[in-house]
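Handout for the seminar on molecular recognition.
Each group receives one record of this type.
Step one: identify the two inputs.
Step two: read the structure output and locate the region that could contact manganese (II) ion.
Step three: write two sentences on what you found, then compare them with the reference statements printed after the record.
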Amino acid sequence: METKQAMIKRREKLMKHLKPGTLALLFSGRAPYRSADAHYPFHVNRNFYYLTGIDRENFVLYLYKSPKGEVHEQLFLEELDPKMEKWTGFRMKPEEAVAVSGVAKIGFVSEFHNQVFRLIAGFQVASLALDLERPSWEFAGYEAHRFLEGFKPKYPQLPLYDLAPYFAKSRMIKDEVEIEELRKAIAITEKGLDRVLDRLAPGKMEYEVQAAFESTLMENGSQPAFSTIAVGGKNAVVLHYEENNQMLKDGDCILLDLGADWGKYSADISRTYPVNGKFTERQRAIYEAVLDALKTVTAAVKPGETLMNLNELAKKILAKHLRELGLIKTEDELGKYYYHGIGHHLGLDTHDASQRGGELKPGMVITVEPGLYIQEEGIGIRIEDDVLVTKTGYEVLSASIIREVDEIESRMNHK
Ligand SMILES: [Mn+2]
């Protein structure tokens, strides 16, 4: 399937879901100001991108389902502005927008408010649908929230419909195009980790490992999907360590949690390697415990399972191993050494949009990422794969990224 075809299908599915008389507006968003006239990098609204494939600032997707059920689609672009284009780059032309998104009708954002006004003035709009997802209570709001601030006082009578739950549900099931993007993101992540294995040695800095990974991504037209974690020794018990500024010591392990971005889709892989190319007996024993949890949980992935059940399974296996390793006596002590969930949905966001508590279905992509973090021994080990739920079970999308002790040691000793 072509990307454009996928976009058309995704919009058709949404329009089928909406009631007649609904006007749905999706905003690509704008980069927030950083200081003076400088902005933070722009990150397109994921749901706008999901329906258009377009990664541009200040665009609006207008979707209207008439009371008779006819669908009208229009994409509003930023005005072409030859003067501004000399400063900030070329803007997307209408024909390009049509080619990427498959939306046939194009307008410019300066006309957008009037168009909304005219439609409502014709008494053909029963409700307004916006993506009103909030990442936190305190959050000031995305572009849709800002639009609503101006809209609500003018049309307080129009009911609102929040699209966020629809997107969470829809985005959990990946189509062909999405799975292809994820495969590419994972393949580039594998290349980056391979370069890491070439360079890893005692005395290197964590940031050198990060650079080995990220430069490989750049050489492949990619970039990190999230802040690369490259953490040696005792700091590996910190789950989201991002300093990456310590020296890697002989006899320590390094924990890497990283992923490439491809077409806005995120890989999310964790591997733990011995810095000097050989695990100690103790490191190996703990590593094998985590690996056993990874394999057992992965093998349990199938339609009808839940992430919660999978986490319970991971806890059982990790607790069994911790008892054998002499670290705990009863299962309720596990929280001292394993203190995150087993995984999450993966897609346009690394922690992808999802409805909590649901059953796994074919086409979903999740991470499986057990870990053990033993502060008193200065050991943190996490191994994470990306797993596609299939009709009959699962496919490990990251299956070719080595994870067995012998494979890692032999790879590191034959550079
Ligand atoms: Mn993850």
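Reference statements: The longest strand covers residues 71-77. The pocket of manganese (II) ion is lined by residues 268, 344, 367, 369, 384 (CB under 6 Å).
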